[in-house]
Records
---
Amino acid sequence: MQLTDEMRHELVQTALEARRWAYAPYSHYAVGAALLTHSGKVYDGVNIENAAYPDGICAERVAVFKAVSEGEREFVAVAVVTANGGSPCGSCRQVLAEFGLETIVLLANGDGQLLLETSVAQLLPGAFTPQHLHSEPG
Ligand code: THU
């Protein structure tokens, strides 16, 4: 599926709107994500923190897990909105990589301004992928 400018805009807007539901009472760093599947559906996500700090989860992983739990495994793009265009953490890069290195990543700020367009492959060079588990040992 070809990502058009209109789709980019819609995805960023969805992430921006979702961001209001972020539960970030500890870091005060609200994150919204919106994930577009090959079937054309969009799953949003927000970061959800916890008083037991390590038990919180990032917005990107919430979006991916929502999608996968509904049978979606092929993703076109994910938009991430933060106050300042922050980039996905290492764990989110790894979870995105599981479902495709070609997934486009759009980073936008709190005004919905697109600051960077990149891909999972670019964000996680040399990723460990399912193929490593399935190929014959060398
Ligand atoms: N956070 C995300 O939601 N996505 C990322 O990729 C980076 C970090 C969240 C986790 C935590 O709730 C807050 O931002 C500060 O780290």
Note: Strands lie at 32-37, 42-46, 75-81, 104-108, 114-119.
---
Amino acid sequence: MILDGKKLAQKIKEGLKAEVVALKTKYGVVPKIVNIMVGENPDSSAYMNSQRKAAGFVGIDYELMSLPLDVTQEHLCSLILALNEDDRVTGVMITKPVPAHIHFSDAANLIELNKDIEGINAANIGNLLLGNPTLIPCTAAAVMEHLKSTGVDLSGKEVVIIGDSQIVGKPLSLLLLRELATVTVCHIGTSRAGKLAEHVEQADVLIVAVGKAALVKGSWIKPGAIVIDVGINEVNGKIVGDVDFEDAQKRAAFITPVPGGVGPVTSVMLMRNSIEAFKLIIGV
Ligand code: NAD
């Protein structure tokens, strides 16, 4: 079964829209996101457009703050501090990539805990580690929504994650431990040791977030597995994931396509986080 990200995103968006209407009726205001973007980047502009569309649908205010490529770290940091103080702003994010002279983590860590709608600052990641997550990194949350949509109980399942990034692999490993899954995290070291295939073959649930087309061969997939492909790669002008989809879909019970799998749900998770942030700020 192909896990349709657009359909899932639409279903979640409808629920969020109703929630925003209810919040507006009760409190007279709606969440407001400010997205800080340094310089121009076609990939991030595409992601930004899908965020803007999702925000418009759900009823969340969305403002893009475009900063010049040569903006200083000091200027960026003072802007974040000002947004922290601005009561009308309930969510702040910084779009990646940023130019080399900007220290992303230093800036992101300045975002007030309850306004950190991407769930990426050290305190939010710490809360996730301590088993008390509030704002979760959006891509990891999108993968969890896809897994939830299969209805499969993850307790005791062998879950293999390929990729240990801060926004996908690491937070996912923590979220899956909360579901009592047995989690293995593979990465470049696993491949260099020639052990990737043997781990994948054991996976009841496989999540791949690397950025390398056809990294995972269809023949490695355990029959009946759930396969979530987070990767985005351009091959001959076409967007593909990290898994050899054609062969993998013959063996998997559930599989996400690329495009149209994890991506559409990710921007909706940003909206969900924005509503959570709003509720944390007003204390409901
Ligand atoms: P990253 O680029 O920060 O890290 C890549 C990871 O892959 C590392 O853990 C590295 O060790 C591992 N890796 C690299 N080569 C490998 C190999 N040959 N074998 C095994 N592991 C290997 O990762 P990221 O930022 O999480 O992005 C990963 C992919 O997911 C990219 O294609 C990115 O575009 C995509 N992505 C998609 C979404 C979405 O919403 N669909 C969101 C974020 C990222």
Note: The beta strands are 32-38, 61-67, 91-94, 158-162, 182-186, 205-208, 226-229, 233-235, 238-240, 254-255.
